[in-house]
Amino acid sequence: MAGLVSPDWLETRLGDPEVVIVEVSRDQPDTAPWFRSHIPGSHHVWWKDFCWDESERQFPSPDVMAARLGDFGVGDGCTLVLVGDPIQFATYPYWVLAMTGFEHLAVVLDGGRETWEAEGRSLTDSPTPTPSPDLPSPREPVTDARVGRDEVLAGLGDSARALVDVRSAEEYRGERVSPVTLAFDHGAERKGHIPGAVHLLYERLLDSEGTFLDPASLIEELGNVGVRSGQEIVTYCRLSHRASLAWFALTRIADRPNVRVYDGSWTEWGSMVGMPIERPPEVPPSNR
Q1: Matching CATH number, 4-118, of 3.40.250.10, 3.30.300.30, 3.40.50.10190, 3.30.70.920
Q2: Which of 47, 158, 165, 263 is the most buried (most CB within 10 A)?
């Protein structure tokens, strides 16, 4: 299970200067739970500040990512533990680090912040000292982890590819464009799913404790929605966070080859002029 560590593993290494813990949150600074309590010695970062270029809807260059890692004290020889708040906000930066050449430094805490808290493990409200800057060196980036809209569009109907929509059922059916947990339904101009996509809720790749399923169970979940052995898999969601969780689970845990994330996901597809969209037929009202 490359790239994944357990809460037990991390708990025995708290205080190790070569283990750098960063909680990546969906919430902006000062509103994130980290500021209330956090794993001792951990740092906080908002996902966009860490994973995106400052001016473009693009990932940072390896040099920029090295500087961001260095700000947390991550140097060559360190282990960067990504703590997701929630879990998919750890797999997303892991995916980005793979594409910028720093996957060799990173691991994901299984279950993220939610599982750590639920198990009653150590938390503190003490501030974490700012580390001395360091600068890690990138390695060869992973170049086959991402796919763009043009390639997705060109491959519609290709039986060699499986499009896997890991959003909620409401999003897949075209009832919403964002999860029901968000009060404001936003993120795209149209509702529905990419034609031919099968639905596999990302939470089905996790157990009841919020940790990842074992490799055999992950592959079984793919088979349950009709994905065949040997097919290329393209995962997508709304912003690619949940899609990156599926990519991480399938490639780094289940060792499934040929899996990519459609980076723009539904935020892009559902707002672009001319893109085909599927929605299940509406049930006609009863005459009774």
Answers
A1: 3.40.250.10
A2: 165
